[in-house]
Automatic annotation (TrEMBL):
EC assignment: 1.14.11.29
Matching Gene3D superfamilies: q2cbj1_9rhob like domain (2.60.120.620)
Keyword hit for Oxidoreductase: yes
GO biological process: cellular response to hypoxia
GO cellular component, one term: cytoplasm
Catalytic activity: L-prolyl-[hypoxia-inducible factor alpha subunit] + 2-oxoglutarate + O2 = trans-4-hydroxy-L-prolyl-[hypoxia-inducible factor alpha subunit] + succinate + CO2
InterPro entries according to UniProt: HIF_prolyl_hydroxylases (IPR051559), Oxoglu/Fe-dep_dioxygenase_dom (IPR005123), Pro_4_hyd_alph (IPR006620), Pro_4_hyd_alph_FE2OG_OXY (IPR044862)
Protein name from the UniProt record: hypoxia-inducible factor-proline dioxygenase
Length: 115
């Protein structure tokens, strides 16, 4: 996924990448923002590690590569960005969990309800 925040205070609310067992187990983010100044531009990725009393703030600076667990262990958000902010995200999938998620989805979509 390629994300572009237009710089008008846009962010992304706190969430978990894989809340429902869709197969994603590792999130990998690569930042493409040259000359980024978080004090001026914002756009920090804030991670709320499960069971911890602290947060981890990651500046989206150029050529930074970040890995974290995709499940409930790492809820995260993108704080408002005041400059155009680019990031590429790739997920590593667990093959068995992904196959099970696809099977559940096919069964759900294949269901017909008659009144």
């Amino acid at each position: 996924m390629v994300a572009c925040y237009p710089g008008n205070g846009t962010g992304y609310v706190r969430h978990v990448d894989n809340p429902n067992g869709d197969g994603r187990c590792i999130t990998c983010i690569y930042y493409l923002n040259k000359n980024w100044d978080s004090k001026l531009h914002g756009g920090i990725l804030r991670i709320f590690p499960e069971g911890r009393s602290y947060v981890a703030d990651v500046e989206p600076i150029f050529d930074r590569l970040l890995f974290f667990w995709s499940d409930r262990r790492n809820p995260h958000e993108v704080q408002p960005s005041y400059a155009t902010r680019y990031a590429m995200t790739v997920w590593y999938f667990d093959a068995e969990e992904r196959a099970e998620a696809k099977k559940k989805f096919r069964n759900l979509v294949g269901m017909r309800i008659y009144f």
